[in-house]
Amino acid sequence: MLNFFRKNEKVENTTKIFKLSDININENVGINKLKELNKILIIDDNDFPPLNKLRNNNFQITKLDDISSIQMVKEFPIVVCDIQGVGKELSDSTGGGAFIIKEIRNQYPDKYIIAYSTHSYDLALQEYTKNADIFIGKGTSVEQWSSIFEEAIRICSNPIIRWKRFRSILLEKNMELYELFQLEQKYIQYLVEQKTKDTILDETKSISINPHFQDIVNQFISSSLSSGLIEIAKEVIK
What we know:
Low-confidence stretches: none
Mean pLDDT: 82
Radius of gyration: 21 Å
Helix content: 40-55%
Structural class: alpha/beta
Number of strands: 5
Strand content: 5-15%
Shape: globular
């Protein structure tokens, strides 16, 4: 009977809790190496005058006059999209680029999106272009483009910043905090323990996530893996 009143022995919790600070970033990785690992897509139906000079500066740039599906941006961490003259197979609007930007943000939330146009910033397009990370005008110099791209590359190459950007979007969409916590744990564990692609995909499937979020979570994982996050992690994580 006395045993009933005895204090229960403390059971040690052996489950490791990962923190973002467990990811040790190597700040010594050169920008040229990061340029190799971060592909840039430009969607513009007109010529892009700085293109050749930017390529000569080692930026990995693909230019398309238009896209016929949002999935075409999947392998590119950074997307530059003109507001006018594109998205003709996706939208009836003359500002089809704004529609493309909106859909990229919905389907691939962690992309770094640059919107630009020769036209004045039409207030009617703000609902769409607000989904871009930055809006700039055409006529921007090669030096300015270079600085913009280098900043985008540094953001996309930092696994902590990349996750925080995606986490903010999930919070805005009201994902349950416990679901978000589980997802964050798998993400950090994947990077810290250098898990394989198949392992992280299988383990993520074991998390009970609201079906409403399943598609964008899967896209984040798929996009991150396909865009070279594994290679980037090997370079920037000590």
